[in-house]
Every structure is written in structure tokens, then in C-alpha cells.
Amino acid sequence: MRAAISDYVPKASNDIKETARPPPKVQWCWKETDFCMDNHDEDDIFGSASDCWIKYGNSDQVEKAYQKQKGRGTFSPLTGYVLDFSTMVQTKQATGFEREVKRFVEKADDVDVDMKNVEVGQGLPQDLAGEPQMILVQGDIIQISKQREDGWAFGSKLHHENEALARKLLAVAVAVVGEGSSEDDAAILTDTGWFPLDKTQPPTGEELAVLQKQVGDTGELTPPKHWDPVVDPTTVQLHELREGDPERDAVVKSFLSTLVPPQFTKVKIVRVQRVQNLAMWQSYVVKRQTICYREHFDSSLGPGSAAYEKALERFERKWLWHGSNAEVMDKILQQGFNRSFCGKNATAYGKGVYFARDASYSAYRIYAVPDNKGIQYMMACRVVVGEYCKGHMDALTPDLRDASRNMLYDTTVGLLGSDNMSSPSIYVTYHDAQAYPEYLIAFKSSS
């Protein structure tokens, strides 16, 4: 465990100035016919319903095209539609019907970020090129999961000293990477990634007291009682569960409950392994307790209390499912659900890590890609979803939940078929510590 001793931004460009202003947030909208407004959810309406402006779900993508084309040219925000940036008109190609389009720009932050006291990194070692890097704010507390002899470490934040400042530093760093770039392109994150150890030190007693006050009873940071003895807290251990073991049976039953014909036939379980990664588990527990205590505003309601158990029932999901290929799966087991390699397949509900309510969704071969022996891999995950909102195409973060506390929602969701907000099919997380891969299932199927 380490504490940041300075504000630090990974090197993304040589153009970070002594003072910089984060770019304003932009929302693209199209004009709806007034008598059709009842067809839209409240979350999709921008401003007053009487103004009839509907948000583009892929507003970030539209803005990227607008910036790249310098406010000229055309872009297709949806199949069958063309947006002309010069005239700010959207046309339906099949009928020629036109709608007005508008680019709403939030007022920029009046306060520049003083970069004079922010240390800018020198770039990752060559063999780590493309790996995610983490922004540090003085006072952050980081749980290390990997440490190298050259002074670089990989970790996740247990405590954010000033998350709003971290987001501003991220916006500044990403804004100067290059035209059309994004947080995802830059591989710079606020909560996890590689960082230089010399920008940190062991936490002081005062800093540990802040962390303990934030998370309450730290007894839950010890390994779960049903785990095998932990050999190395920074390394993953996989414990294979035998057939007939009640622990294995519970996982298999939940996994198979939605893998039914005609979509899936001849599903064979190859093995089920318990995932033991203490550093990752501790990061997850801290994030889970932080969300539970945040909503109750009382960290004295520790684990085991009725109030805490009620909060867990509301904010934690056991299990959600995540399928991937063998190479990415190995990275997840060691480093956690890092958005730089977990969030590439889908962006329809935001640029985060995707989890499915039903194993059948994640078991398709496009997600759980078979290896050369035809084996697919699925993880049964604990996920602390917290408070969530509807997701939007390519969104880098969830929507703002509480402006007075500068607080975002924790998760975005996707609704499929007959879903409602109380039971969505898809959850998208934006903090890597929000999920823990509790079990790894290897299986074969005809799908």
C-alpha cells in the first residue's frame, strides 16, 4: 500500500502548459416534434421538455467528428441519417425529412488547473507501451498488485483524495494528446494503472486513519474464510473445485440457468476455479464499503449490521457475467477489470467494462472467444453497481448525479427487450475496483 506524495500526470504529450483549462462538456441534440415528446424518457431530454431537444446517445462520437472536420462536412450519427455540420441539419436519407441539430456547450470551468506544481511523467518503459497509466493526486492511497525492479508499479486506488481534481487533470492530459483522441486512446485513468513508485511513499498513520474512517471496519480486508491459504497477496491463485463440491455446484447452477436451447446446446463444463487475488479483493471490498457507507452517511454501520446488509443487497450483484478470450482473461485475473483491455468490444452504453445479468449473453463466441481447443472462458463476478443511470454511446463517465457534491453515478446500464431499470440486462462499470472475478469457468458449447 502506498500514498501519493505529489500530483502526477502521466506523459501523454509534450504540450502540457503551466496552466491549463479542462475542455467544456458538449452535448449534441436533435429537435423533436413537440407532440412526439411523450415518446422519450426523461433522461433523453436535454433541458426543458417544452424546448423539444433530444440528446444524441453517441454525442461524444459526434463531437469527435465535428472537431476532426473543423465544423464542416457531414457525419452519420445513426444508420440512414446524415448530419451536416455546416447547416446543422440532420436528414433522413430515405425520405429527405430534415431536423434541426444543436451543439450545446456547458460553461467552461472558470478556474484553470495550475500545472506548475503537477509533476509530468517521462513515459512508460518500452515493454509497457500501451498499458494504462494512472493519475495521482497528493494523498491518494494505492493498493499495489504488481511491482517492478525498475521503479514502476501497477495498482488501484483505495482512497481518492480529490476525485474532482483527478478528473480535471485527466481532461487536461487527454485534451493535448492529439486531435480526435480520447481517454481511451491515451490509456490514462484516474483510478488504476502504472505509476512511478518514487511519486509515492508508505502511508502515514494519519492517512491510514482517513482510509479507515472511509471504509469502516477493515476486518473484511482479510481473505474470505473459504479461501485456501494465501501464498502471495500480489499474485493470483486458482483453486480448482471438484465435482460434487457445493461451492462448485452453486456456480454451475447459476451459470447454466440461462444457457438453454435453441441458442445453446451441449454445454459441457470443463472446470471451475475459485479466483484468489488478495490485493484485488481488498480493492473491491474498499470500493464496496465506500459506496455502502456513502449512501448511509455513517461508517459505524459495519459489516454484519442490518443496515449494511440491506445496502449490500441494494448495491452489490452476485453474480454478473463477463466472457473474454484466454489472453485477456489472464490479464484480468492478475490486474483486474482494466478498461484498456476489457472495454474494447462494446461502447453502446459507455466506454467501461461490460457485465451481463444473464450468462447466456456473455457466453456467445463473440465475447467468450474459444481457444485453439474450443474452450471458452467465463467469469462469475461480484460487482458493486451502486447508483446507476442509463448508458450512452461512447460516454467516458456516467452522468452527473449530484451537482452539489460533484458526484457521478457509479454505473451505467443497458436495457434490452422487456427490461426495466430495476433489472437491466447490461451493467457498465468505470472504476476497475467495482468488480471482483470470483470464479473462472472453462466450458465448451454449441451456440
Describe the largest sheet.
7 strands, antiparallel
Low-confidence spans: pLDDT under 50, at least 5 residues? 176-186
The rounded distance between the terminal residues' Cα atoms is 44 Å
Compute the average pLDDT.
85
For the secondary structure, the number of strands is 29
Shape: globular
Strand content: 25-35%
> Any idea of the CATH topology of the largest domain?
Phosphoenolpyruvate Carboxykinase, domain 3
CATH structural class of the largest domain: Alpha Beta
Q: Which structural category do the helix and sheet elements fall into?
A: alpha+beta
Question: In the residues, how many domains can be counted?
Answer: 3
The whole-angstrom Rg is: 23 Å
Q: Which architecture name of the largest domain does CATH use?
A: Alpha-Beta Complex
Subcellular location: Nucleus
Keywords: Glycosyltransferase, NAD, Nucleus, Transferase
GO molecular function: NAD+ poly-ADP-ribosyltransferase activity; transcription corepressor activity
EC number: 2.4.2.-
